[in-house]
Description:
The protein has 198 residues and is α/β, with parallel strands linked by helices. It folds into 3 domains: 4-67, no CATH class; 83-132, no CATH class; 134-197, Glucose-6-phosphate isomerase like protein, domain 1 (Rossmann fold, 3-Layer(aba) Sandwich). Helix content is 43%, strand content 12%. It contains 9 helices and 7 strands. It has helices at residues 8-15, 22-28, 32-35, 54-66, 69-77, 92-96, 111-130, 151-162, 181-188, and strands at 37-40, 43-46, 104-105, 108-109, 143-147, 172-176, 196-197. The strands form 3 sheets. The protein has a 3-stranded parallel β-sheet, sandwiched between helices. Helix 1 packs antiparallel against helix 4 (54-66). The model has no long low-confidence stretch (mean pLDDT 92).
Amino acid sequence: MNPLETTQQWRDVVALKPPASLAELFATSPERVQSMTLRVGGLLIDYSKQLLDPKIIEALLSVSLERDVASAFQDMAAGQAINVTERRAVGHMALRSPKGQRCLMNGIDVAPEVHATLDQMATLATAVRSGDYVGATGSRIRTIVNIGIGGSDLGPSMMYEALRSLRSAEISCRFVANVDPADLAANLQGLEPAETLF
């Protein structure tokens, strides 16, 4: 498949001038919220607050058709090896599927193993928050350091910020998102090893 930026559909998107402001879009389209809101799988998706107009949406849909996004999604859902860099299937569907729903990767239902791991994670999280899981000296865990790159950083750090109002004052999190030793050193500064979980 040709690189995205070489396609005519993508060049058409790039050539479009974005709307000047959201205020202008709402002033000229009072029905904008109704026409740009979807309900999908229990979610309410409101994209009316994005700098999109009908021409840009149409051009983006053309890109998705040219790139055959629907088939790629079906391949992902079927457990096909769509991660071309690592030549493997991706686990997104298994992580998000409800218990009892099959999720195939390379023809194997991985959902039971994924849900067993998620249950273990929930048990550990509960034990850390309650103080039942302690450090080597018997002290409560006070800091969790997440080490991850890409989605292994972005997901946890976004969740931590999104649920800020529910955070416990007793436990803080730090995020190391690259292999730079200076970043690691900065994030470890002032931590008590016996009260830190990686």
